[in-house]
Amino acid sequence: MDSTRIADAARGLRHVFIRDLVLPASIGVHAHEHGQTQRIRINIDLGVEDDGARPLSRQPVGRDRLSRVVDYEGVAKTVKGIVSEGHVLLVETLAERIAGACLADSRVVLARVRVEKLDVFPDAAAAGVEVERRRP
């Protein structure tokens, strides 16, 4: 799979995403980062099984029901819950937790998660990490 392309009709995947979710988080290894929150930005890209994408799909196209899709509102609520659980030392750990929660939905075959700390350096927009995890 192309490193940036997630939606793929031939593979039966749709791209579900959340962009620029900014949250206060208790995160960091330094003493001054404990006991206070700082702004983080989270971006999530999910490769989701799309039952209507394959040419010979038996599923009717255009079924307008929430039950047939991964609900991005539910994903956002899950992410907010993970962030609010308590202090995390590493952005890598937070990204892994979010990716794992996304992959808990059996329709999600790929989760790409970027976590950025927004106020780390005065001369940089952000510093952080991006992970990509796939269902085996």
Short characterization:
Helix content is 18%, strand content 32%.
Structure explained in plain terms:
The chain has helices spanning 72-83, 91-103; strands at residues 13-25, 38-49, 108-117, 127-134. The protein has 136 residues and is α+β, with helices and mostly antiparallel strands. It has a single domain, classed as GTP Cyclohydrolase I, domain 2 (2-Layer Sandwich). It has a four-stranded antiparallel sheet, with helices on one face. Helix 1 (72-83) runs antiparallel to helix 2. It is elongated, with a radius of gyration of 17 Å. It starts with 12 loop residues before the first strand and ends with a strand. The model has no long low-confidence stretch (mean pLDDT 90).
SSE arrangement:
Layout: E1 13-25, E2 38-49, H1 72-83, H2 91-103, E3 108-117, E4 127-134
Helix pairs in contact: 1-2
